[in-house]
Each structure stands twice: as structure tokens, then as C-alpha cells.
Design a protein that fits this description.
Two copies of one chain form a homodimer.
Chain A: H1 7-15, H2 19-31, H3 37-46, E1 51-57, H4 63-76, E2 81-87, H5 100-104, E3 113-119, H6 131-140, E4 145-151, H7 155-163, E5 166-171, H8 177-186, E6 192-195, H9 203-220, E7 229-231, H10 240-257, H11 259-287, H12 293-301, H13 306-316
């Protein structure tokens, strides 16, 4: 950074919506700097107004293009839109794959759009470290809707669902059999389903298949709300406004049913737990050469199991596990 | 269970290779039962001989079929083969998607093959809870090679790499642009690359593209070993023996370079940390209504941030974080 700005001064600038201040605060959140903690706590208390939407889907579903179109639709309604794109970056070199500008196409430079890519390297779960703090930053800065975009199947989806108010799962017609299996696995995490590539001839079949699967699975899993399936075509700009309407309706549904507060609290508790686990991780790294050295040597000799070593790690920092 | 067997009696039966005993012990490992801990510790100390191979790849890559063929090739060399398939199961209903028998085709009933599907529900990382203990069980039971098969991109891959001695990434020709982006992200995690669907005309192009990318990326990331790219065709049974040979060579490479012990120790440390984090999670759940109730109420009122709440959670169970 050219001129270091104290974090608490940055807070005011972030709340005023200054783009450079937002960018710097996001970098500090991503780096997990201890100095930024107080500032992020301030921003957390100023946040809570934005609608946080997780958007996920299997590779090849055209999700990134759809996100750009959807962001443009949010802009059209006069709202400010923030996009946090989680990149499947290398766990070793940490390189991020897609540029923010390439990702968002024509709306990349718009003053009411803020796009940020974050790498998953080093995080405890499927989300990048600092993702949820980044949501707070954009929320406090006045962004009305915030997308968290992830690529993947598996843990990433589960984490994004647990961080968002509304989850959109994007699938595409004709991606082969494996996709069906995955769809079955992540069927229930969606509050709204989008079927992309709606211009393809197989799209209608994909929509009705998805609807049949939902009709079968959701009531059995105790879901009461019908989950909409929206057919979209990014090149033709079709279904985008309908998709946004479905997302907005879900926000309404959460508010009127009282589920919004339930979901927010579960997000907060999960964040707390993740933060505590991160501390444990940091403590271990800090004491690796010191207090933990004996346990590590025993572990290396194979004389104790990782489970036993874990209980010693906890005991070293003051936790006695009774069971 | 029809007749409950004490865990320590089961240990002897597992070591003797009794299939029903193995199946029961795997269930206990997956359930995370406290009663099974001592037994699993015993098995951990008896384990350490098997070659653990992580096999991962994007959806649509034909990975499951390839795994079945590869397992058959291991059998042909006179070795016993265990397969742990991580299913992208629903985080809510927990249903597993593919049956074990369907998955393995013709070798499903072979006495030297043991196949087990595990669901990712409720785990802290991308792997299912108990996956690494399941590896110990099969290892102690005398399985020479153990595959951990995951579907996914993102955190799942990273976790499987950190649990395996050798990691195989399966890609398929012609799966679209997103695949390229992901491939770039997970390029460096592979010790061996497999390009499936080698009967397709685009397969040779995919192999040479992958080789070019590796030539570019690996030296820059400080890798010294050349990573083989093997073209396979499951229906034609081509490239399968070559893939197994490349996996065996990597095991040799680890042993002769001294990296095998380094990798084993990093797996052990990671397991320890995960186990400690699981304890933290369990402690939180246990004290949710009791000791933690005040913190949870403050969190719900928005008067403290999740970060602050995390420090209180840790303090409640005896950890003071100085920073």
C-alpha cells in the first residue's frame, strides 16, 4: 500500500462508500490481519441490511455469465450490487484464475457495482478466509444485494448455503450422468433453481426433470415451500428478470415467515465457531516448535494417534476433554 | 446391529480381515462414536502399510468407471484393494447417491475388494467424518492399496490431497471452458494425471494441452518431478495398467526421495488439528443451552461480532487468546 491508513479511519471511508477504501478493507479482511479486527467488528455492527445471495453450480453450467447478467438486472432496479467470487485457486501457489473485469463484462466499471475475487487457499471450509467479513464490508458500504459466487460441488456449496440468506443453484441441460448424481445431492440446498442455456433444445426437458425431482425430494425432506425453477438464457437475456424476481420473493418469504432471523442467527453462530477453529489452528502453528514439539515427535514416532494428540493439543492450551 | 460386539473384540476380527467386522468398524468410525475411539486407536497403530491413493476429478470425467477398472488392475497384480467413495450427499437428508455394488461393476463381490461409500454430511472439511479412520481400518485389515475417491472441485480436492500419499486427477476431453479454469486451479495437486475417454478424437489434444500447462506451471511452482499424463479408455480397457504403473512409480519416488515420511507426518498433523477442531465443535453444541447461552444471546442481539463471540467461546473453555 502506498500510504498506510489506520483501519478505523478506513471504516468511515468504507461507510461513505469510497471504492478505494472498500478495496483496501477487503484486502485486510482477506489477509486476516489482527490490526483489522477492530475495524471489521465496527463494520459488522453497521452491516445487516444487505440481501446476501449464494450462487453455486457445477462447472460448465455457465454460472459466471449468468451472475454478470443477474448483477446487471439488479442495477436496473436501482440497487447497488456487490459480487464476491470464490475462485478455485491453487492451494499451493494461490493464484486466482479469472480477472474481476473479465468476469463481469460490460458492467465491470459501473459505480454501483463492486466485484471482488477471493481465493480459497488456506481457509478452514470451502469459503475463502475473510469471505464473510468481506460481505460485512460491502454491506456496511451500502451495497443492497451481495452475491457470493462459488464453483464446485460438495463442501463449497454447503458452506455458501450456510453463509447466504438465499441460495441459487445453477444447472445446465445435457452435462452428462454425473451431473444428475450431483444434482440429487445438492437439490435441497437451493432456495431457487436456475437452468442455464435455456436456448438449448434440451432445456425444457431439464426444467421438467428438475421439477419432478424436487416434487419427489422436497416434501419427503419436510420442505413446505415450493422451490421455483427458472429457465434462463444469458446470450438472449431471457429469464434473468424472472430469476431476480424469484430471489426477491424468497427474501420476502424469509421476512414474513420469521425465518430470516433464524437464518441470520445460524450464520452468526457458524461464523463464531469457524473463528474459534481458526484460533486453534493459529495457536497450533505458533507453538509447533515450542510447547507442541513433544506431541509432534510422538505423533511422528507413531506412538500416539492423531486423536490422542488432539486431546493433548487441547490440554496444552487449557481444554480438558472429559469424554 | 443384530448382536453388539465390543469394539476391542472387533479389532482382532478386523485385523484377521473378517469382512463383516470391517463393515461394522467402518460404521462405528463414520458415526464418530466415543466407544469406538480406543478400537480405532489400536487399528491406527496397526496401520501404516497401505498405499493411500486419492482420486479426484470434475463431474462428467468418467471417474467412477475408471476407479472400478483401476481397482480391477490392482487385483490382477495380486494385491487387495479397498475403495472409499466420498459421496456428495445432501447436507440435510444425508442420502448417499450411488450404491457400492453399482459403483464397482464386475469386481464388486470379489473377496479381495472392499468398497465403502461415505457421505460428507456434517464433516468439518471436504472429506466425510471418519474417512481417515476408515483408511486405518482397511489398512490394518490388510488392504494393500486404498483409493479415496471424491467428486468435486475446490475444498474436497485439497482435503483428499492432504490425506493421500498419491493423488490422481482425472480430466476428460471437451467438457467446456469452465473445466479449463478448474484444471488450472487444481493442476498442481496431481501426482499423476489421467485423461479419461481416451477413445474420443479430442483426447490427444487434451493430453498435449495438459502437458503444456504442466510444463508451464510446475517448474514455476518449484516442482522438480515431472508429472505423468496418462490417456485412458475404460470401455476399451486402455491405459489402465499404465495408470497403475504410474501410481506405483510415485510410491517408489516418495520412498526413495524421503518424501514419504514427510507426507505421512503432514497427514498426521492435519488429522490431529481436525480432531481438535471437532472437539471444539462438539463442546459448543454441548454447552449451547448452558454456559454458551449468554454469548449466543448477545450474538443474536447484534451487540457482539462473531469474532468477539469466538474469543469468549474459547475463554469459556479455558483458552485465553492474547492477541
Amino acid at each position: 500500500m502506498a500510504e498506510p491508513i489506520p483501519s478505523l479511519e478506513l471504516v468511515e471511508r468504507v461507510i461513505a462508500g469510497e471504492r478505494r477504501a472498500i478495496a483496501r478493507m477487503l484486502s485486510r479482511a482477506e489477509a486476516g490481519l489482527a490490526e483489522a479486527r477492530e475495524a471489521l467488528d465496527h463494520l459488522y455492527r453497521r452491516a445487516g441490511r444487505a440481501h446476501v445471495v449464494g450462487i453455486t453450480g457445477v462447472p460448465g453450467s455457465g454460472k459466471s455469465t449468468l451472475v454478470a447478467k443477474l448483477a446487471a438486472a439488479v442495477l436496473d432496479t436501482g440497487r447497488k450490487i456487490g459480487v464476491i467470487a470464490i475462485d478455485p485457486s491453487s492451494p499451493f501457489s494461490g493464484g486466482s484464475i479469472l480477472g474481476d473485469r473479465i468476469r463481469m463484462g460490460e458492467i465491470a466499471g459501473h459505480p454501483s457495482v463492486f466485484v471482488r475475487s477471493m481465493a480459497t487457499r488456506g481457509a478452514l471450509g470451502g469459503l475463502a478466509r475473510g469471505t464473510l467479513e468481506a460481505v460485512d464490508v460491502l454491506d456496511a458500504a451500502g451495497y443492497d444485494m451481495i452475491f457470493i459466487e462459488t464453483v464446485g460441488v460438495g463442501q463449497d456449496e454447503v458452506d455458501v448455503v450456510r453463509a447466504a440468506h438465499t441460495t441459487v443453484v445453477v444447472s445446465a441441460p445435457g452435462l452428462g450422468d454425473d451431473i444428475q448424481a450431483i444434482k440429487a445431492g445438492i437439490l435441497e440446498i437451493a432456495d431457487v433453481h436456475a437452468v442455464s442455456k435455456g436456448d438449448k433444445p434440451e432445456a425444457d426437458k431439464a426444467v421438467s426433470e428438475l421439477q419432478s425431482m424436487l416434487a419427489l425430494v422436497l416434501p419427503a425432506a419436510g420442505f413446505k415451500r415450493a422451490v421455483p425453477v427458472i429457465k434462463t438464457s444469458s446470450p438472449r437475456n431471457e429469464g434473468i428478470a424472472e430469476l431476480l424476481a424469484a430471489i426477491d420473493e424468497h427474501r420476502e418469504y424469509l421476512a414474513t415467515s420469521g425465518l430470516y432471523e433464524v437464518r441470520r442467527q445460524s450464520i452468526r453462530e457458524r461464523r463464531m465457531l469457524k473463528a474459534a477453529q481458526q484460533v486453534l489452528h493459529d495457536e497450533f502453528e505458533r507453538h509447533r516448535e515450542g510447547r507442541m514439539a513433544g506431541v509432534i515427535a510422538e505423533l511422528a514416532a507413531g506412538s500416539i494417534s492423531p486423536q490422542t494428540a488432539a486431546r493433548r493439543l487441547l490440554a496444552h492450551i487449557g481444554i480438558e476433554v472429559k469424554r
